[in-house]
Design a protein that fits this description.
Elements: H1 15-21, H2 28-58, E1 63-69, E2 98-99, E3 108-112, H3 120-123, H4 128-142, E4 146-147, E5 161-162, E6 165-166, H5 173-178, E7 188-203, E8 209-223
Parallel strand pairs: 1-3, 4-7
Antiparallel strand pairs: 1-8, 2-7, 5-6, 7-8
């Protein structure tokens, strides 16, 4: 009877052979990082920002400020709506909450992000806010708007600037309030994005009002007409 050759369990391939047999794809790590970043940014725009802008337009309002609260800003997330407890639970608000660091006459809305990927650390990475703004401007151009500021976009270097604010500058509501606003013509739109302070006036368990502050991704869009 012919003998079949078998490898002994002890005759494993050398470590160097195992490593060399693993397929490699140079450059895949940067590509994966870029793809993940673009996916998260696109999801934020299509899931939250654009639906909000369309709802605002249907209400007849030409200006809108949207405060998106990262998932790990615990000061602005009610404990019962913490995504780590129940990711499927709908976003909830603090009792009597009001956004207080933006003009009272301005149309300001707040959306709490519950995806674990939507952390402040992600949005504060170099170039991420600039990329979010550029993707948003692209969507607005696709809808037929003339986006104000396109003519000066080439002056931005490596995403160092975003909206009306420098990439490393942390604007407050007051800075959004006092920014010089240029009148927009029919069909024009202006978009600005920044990581900024968001302050809420809320009612605590004792029935007293207190102020809670944290950083959020603030998107401001003005439509001419």
């Amino acid at each position: 009877m012919a003998r079949t050759s078998e490898k002994s369990p002890d005759s494993l391939p050398p470590y160097s052979e195992s490593i060399s047999s693993t397929p490699t794809s140079p450059g895949s790590l940067p590509q994966n990082l870029a793809n993940a970043r673009t996916t998260l940014i696109s999801s934020l725009i299509t899931t939250h920002i654009l639906p909000h802008l369309h709802t605002t337009a249907l209400s007849g309002l030409s200006s809108s400020t949207l405060c998106l609260i990262p998932s790990n800003i615990s000061s602005l997330h009610p404990p019962s709506s913490n995504a780590s407890k129940d990711p499927s639970s709908p976003p909830r608000s603090f009792p009597g909450e009001t956004i207080v660091n933006f003009p009272s006459a301005e149309n300001v809305s707040l959306i709490r992000l519950h995806d674990p990927s939507n952390t402040l650390q992600f949005w504060r990475q170099h170039g991420v806010i600039a990329e979010l703004e550029e993707h948003l401007r692209s969507h607005l151009r696709a809808e037929g708007y003339r986006v104000k500021g396109d003519e000066t976009a080439s002056a931005k270097t490596n995403g160092a600037k975003a909206g009306k604010f420098g990439g490393n500058k942390r604007p407050s509501g007051a800075e959004w309030k006092t920014a010089v606003v240029e009148k927009l013509e029919q069909g024009e739109v202006r978009a600005a994005v920044a990581v900024a302070d968001v302050c809420l006036r809320v009612e605590n368990e004792m029935g007293l009002f207190e102020t809670r502050t944290g950083l959020g991704v603030v998107v401001k869009v003005d439509v001419g007409g």
